[in-house]
């Protein structure tokens, strides 16, 4: 079959670009080997945030004593599991598939493999593209080579999201975004949770203060946090999982990062390095002549907003429309723990590693009026270079929302002097940005 564009993988970015091109009248084949929509709506962002919403409600109710009277909290996972099944249509992608074909796209189910310039094969069907191929096949959970682990019935994010019951006890291997978010959810629903992280801190890609804060909060909620931990052996028996012969739990969630498999995708057929971890792209998302890549597979930030942002650039490129190139200076991310950890741009260490002469501002949320009223834990940390912010972190009850103001400041290169003399509404959480700038 000959078409204009072939899109391999219909996650958030692939769906955006394939649907956009089809709606513009191009002949598009979208290839998907699982569910149209990808990881985010079925096993990622949306169901995990629904679980978090439920867990946060429990935590909020538990805060009633001492502030507002009495509240008895009896958690039940049943409504959570039911809402997730409704939200995912029980892991059925008919609505998303119809959305794409309704725009005129051709949906092909199966695993796509690049077999030559402009050519993709799905089992015994060969597709040829006149304009090009878009690689948007995402990532899969990466399972560390720990002795015994692969033979056990461990969970990845997929099984955790599909859980119909809360385990009595849970070990979470990996204290990154997935591990931290899901550890807190299951703990708030009554599971005895231990987080085991190899590095010295939780959320190690963010500011150290963020990992330290989360550890404090987790331990106060009864979650055991083991950092700097090395797991050498895993086994499973009738009672559950055993790590290093000393740590036991009913379930084990492996959340140790993600992996790509460029060899299986056949990227060498278009001259790309099949042993690389990610597809190398330029600021127009071009990987080779007639090949674009977007989303997690590019290694520019494993977030839905990055995938969709890149997809819009690819769409413009293929349709011959003008627009700015990709710019990741103000890349925002939010870990939806409670407190939320919002961050944009560079951390202090990343800025220093780039040789930047930085000035750092920091304040505790508890010192702000709203933070004190709320009984909130969190902080604002700002990284200035050359009179503008190059990075910021906002940790707190709505850290991800407060981040909006900081993302605008980094993206727009607003002079710090202007930020210092702006009026911040009283008493809001975001007013702590002013406090940080004045605290010096
Ligand atoms: C638990 C969890 C929570 C998350 N929470 C957030 C969040 O709150 N906010 C956020 O921004 N991000 C979050 N993410 C990350 C987000 O889900 C990903 O960044 C996003 O889904 C990546 O999109 P993508 O377009 O790269 O493709 P993906 O969503 O990874 O989809 C790629 C698709 O390609 C298909 N595919 C793969 N290989 C082939 C092939 N050879 N042929 C055909 N099809 C193929 C796959 O089946 C898949 O459907 C979360 C992830 C997880 C796991
Ligand atoms: N709120 C969000 O936006 C959100 C939520 C979840 C996931 N995500 C995205 O999904 C990606 C994948 O999430 P993730 O949490 O799997 O990966 P991650 O890379 O964020 O964290 C993995 C953690 O596992 C640790 N680790 C690796 N091997 C280990 C081992 N053998 N023993 C103990 N610890 C080990 C790493 O040191 C790291 O801290 C994230 O990078 C993020 O981009 C985003």
UniProtKB/TrEMBL annotation:
<comment type="similarity">
    <text>Belongs to the class-I pyridine nucleotide-disulfide oxidoreductase family.</text>
</comment>
<feature type="domain" description="Pyridine nucleotide-disulphide oxidoreductase dimerisation">
    <location>
        <begin position="332"/>
        <end position="435"/>
    </location>
</feature>
<dbReference type="Pfam" id="PF02852">
    <property type="entry name" value="Pyr_redox_dim"/>
</dbReference>
<dbReference type="InterPro" id="IPR001100">
    <property type="entry name" value="Pyr_nuc-diS_OxRdtase"/>
</dbReference>
<feature type="domain" description="FAD/NAD(P)-binding">
    <location>
        <begin position="4"/>
        <end position="311"/>
    </location>
</feature>
<dbReference type="Pfam" id="PF07992">
    <property type="entry name" value="Pyr_redox_2"/>
</dbReference>
<dbReference type="InterPro" id="IPR036188">
    <property type="entry name" value="FAD/NAD-bd_sf"/>
</dbReference>
<keyword id="KW-0285">Flavoprotein</keyword>
<dbReference type="InterPro" id="IPR004099">
    <property type="entry name" value="Pyr_nucl-diS_OxRdtase_dimer"/>
</dbReference>
<protein>
    <submittedName>
        <fullName>NAD(P)/FAD-dependent oxidoreductase</fullName>
    </submittedName>
</protein>
<dbReference type="InterPro" id="IPR023753">
    <property type="entry name" value="FAD/NAD-binding_dom"/>
</dbReference>
<keyword id="KW-0274">FAD</keyword>
<dbReference type="InterPro" id="IPR016156">
    <property type="entry name" value="FAD/NAD-linked_Rdtase_dimer_sf"/>
</dbReference>
């Amino acid at each position: 079959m000959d078409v204009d564009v072939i899109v391999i993988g219909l996650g958030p970015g692939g769906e955006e670009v394939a649907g956009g091109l089809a709606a513009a009248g191009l002949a598009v084949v979208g290839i998907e080997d699982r569910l149209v929509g990808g990881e985010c709506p079925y096993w990622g962002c949306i169901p995990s945030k629904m679980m978090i919403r439920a867990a946060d409600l429990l935590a909020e109710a538990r805060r009633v004593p001492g502030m507002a009277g009495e509240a008895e909290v009896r958690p039940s996972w049943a409504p959570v599991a039911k809402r997730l099944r409704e939200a995912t249509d029980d892991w059925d992608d008919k609505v998303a598939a119809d959305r794409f074909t309704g725009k005129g796209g051709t949906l092909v189910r199966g695993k796509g493999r690049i077999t030559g310039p402009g050519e993709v094969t799905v089992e015994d069907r060969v597709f040829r593209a006149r304009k090009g191929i878009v690689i948007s096949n995402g990532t899969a959970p990466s399972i560390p080579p720990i002795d015994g682990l692969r033979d056990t019935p461990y969970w990845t994010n997929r099984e955790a999201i599909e859980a119909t019951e809360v385990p009595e006890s849970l070990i979470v291997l990996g204290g990154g975004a997935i591990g931290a978010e899901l550890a807190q959810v299951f703990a708030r629903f009554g599971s005895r949770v231990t987080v085991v992280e190899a590095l010295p801190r939780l959320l190690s890609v963010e500011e150290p203060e963020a990992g330290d804060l989360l550890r404090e909060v987790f331990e106060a909620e009864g979650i055991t946090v083991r950092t700097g931990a090395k797991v050498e052996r895993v086994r499973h028996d009738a009672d559950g999982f055993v790590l290093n012969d000393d740590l036991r739990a009913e379930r084990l969630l492996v959340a140790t990062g993600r992996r790509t498999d460029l060899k299986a995708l056949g990227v060498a057929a278009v001259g790309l390095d099949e042993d690389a971890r990610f597809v190398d792209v330029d600021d127009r998302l071009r990987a080779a002549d007639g090949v674009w890549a977007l989303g997690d597979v590019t290694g520019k930030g494993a977030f839905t907003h990055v995938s969709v942002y890149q997809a819009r650039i690819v769409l413009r490129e293929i349709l011959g429309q003008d627009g700015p190139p990709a710019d990741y200076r103000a890349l925002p991310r939010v870990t939806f723990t409670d407190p939320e950890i919002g961050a944009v741009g560079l951390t202090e260490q990343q800025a220093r590693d780039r040789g930047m002469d930085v000035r750092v501002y920091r304040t505790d949320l508890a010192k702000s009026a709203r933070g004190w009223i709320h009984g909130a834990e969190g902080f604002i940390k700002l990284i200035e270079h050359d009179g503008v912010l190059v990075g910021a972190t906002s940790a707190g009850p709505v850290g991800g929302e407060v981040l909006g103001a900081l993302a605008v400041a980094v993206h727009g290169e607003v002079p710090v002097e202007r930020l210092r003399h702006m009026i911040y509404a009283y008493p809001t959480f975001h007013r702590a940005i002013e406090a940080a700038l004045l605290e010096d």
